[in-house]
Design brief:
Layout lengths: L1 H19 L5 H24 L9 H24 L2 H7 L3 H11 L7 H20 L8 H21 L8 H19 L1 H5 L7 H29 L1 H6 L3 H14 L5 H18 L20 E3 L5 E3 L10
Length: 318
């Protein structure tokens, strides 16, 4: 599931960058995309679950998650509007670091030394990919800072939303959060949306449909399921593959070259993820069962005799 998410996200950077430079205004693009995705999730949720209800006690978490997602989308579209997709992809490799720190701050993550070693190795791989792409990567300081905001807010959103997966389905959570985010984006971007020309080519609309159905609708379900199964920190660690996958797409689709140092970086990224996923095997059971203590559970009962002692009322622990 994480591999599908990473591939779609990596491709979405290129698609979104293309659309923002071929007719779409940043806020209009975000508003239309989130509105379409929200309507899809609302329909799916009503068909599958017949309700959109979420307990009021989760309202605070949901509201904060909406704020993080709105900030995430503002940072995302304007980062890609100001700088290249490669630059944004490389900066997003720092997402696991933000997720780990926020998870620790909220007391939701207990990370072992193995994880921090894996995160260091993986982040070093991201750095090598960036160094290897130094000749191709360009962008201004504002775009890079907005990409950092995108990474930090997505990490915060992932940490906040993960506990809801124990109670609600990804469809219901996505319907509520995406619909609310779409409303806020529509208010903020009303001027751009009102002036957005819809007279775009068929290619632009096909790419817009892909950006909505793939990297937004499908990945929301897969990402939430991954968060519930392995936790935000380990799930976001897989996001470190995104810069390397983005380079692969550039090589295949744009005939760009990939340096040897980028290959090494990709190997380190994958190695870090595998190290974080590795678990210590449970201790093997003994080959022979220990001999039972024949005298246990017996108490003296007269001269030289014994009787069983009842243990029904005694609590036992394992």
């Amino acid at each position: 599931m994480l591999l599908v998410v990473v591939v779609l996200w990596a491709l979405n950077l290129t698609v979104t960058r293309y659309l923002l430079t071929h007719g779409f205004h940043p806020l209009a693009y975000a508003t239309l995309r989130y509105t379409a995705a929200a309507l899809i999730f609302i329909a799916l949720t009503l068909i599958l679950e017949h309700t959109l209800r979420i307990d009021r006690r989760a309202g605070g978490v949901v509201a904060l998650a909406i704020v993080m997602l709105v900030l995430n989308q503002l940072g995302f579209v304007y980062a890609l509007d100001r700088t290249t997709a490669s630059t944004v992809g490389l900066v997003l490799g720092a997402t696991p670091i933000f997720a780990a720190l926020m998870g620790l701050a909220l007391g939701r993550e207990r990370l072992s030394r193995r994880f921090w070693i894996a995160a260091t190795i993986s982040f070093a791989g991201v750095a090598l990919v960036a160094v290897g792409a130094a000749g191709e990567v360009s962008g201004d300081l504002v775009g890079i800072l907005l990409a950092v905001v995108t990474a930090a807010t997505w990490a915060a959103y992932s940490v906040l939303i993960a506990p809801l997966m124990a109670t609600y389905s990804p469809y219901r959570v996505s319907a509520i959060v995406l619909a609310s985010t779409a409303i806020v984006l529509a208010v903020i971007g009303s001027r751009q949306t009102a002036t957005q020309s819809l007279d775009l080519g068929a290619t632009d609309w096909l790419l817009f449909a892909f950006a909505t159905l793939g990297p937004l609708v499908l990945t929301n379900v897969l990402w939430f399921r991954s968060l519930y199964r392995i936790g935000p920190a380990r799930a976001t660690l897989a996001a470190n593959l995104q810069p390397f996958v983005a380079v692969i797409f550039a090589v295949i689709l744009l005939s760009e070259t990939m340096t040897a140092i980028q290959v090494v970086g990709g190997v380190l990224i994958a190695g870090g993820i595998l190290l974080a996923r590795r678990r210590r095997p449970p201790p093997a059971p003994p080959l022979t069962a220990p001999r039972p203590d024949r005298s246990a559970g017996r108490a003296p009962d007269g001269a030289g005799s014994s009787r069983p002692v009842s243990t029904r009322s005694r609590p036992t622990s394992e």
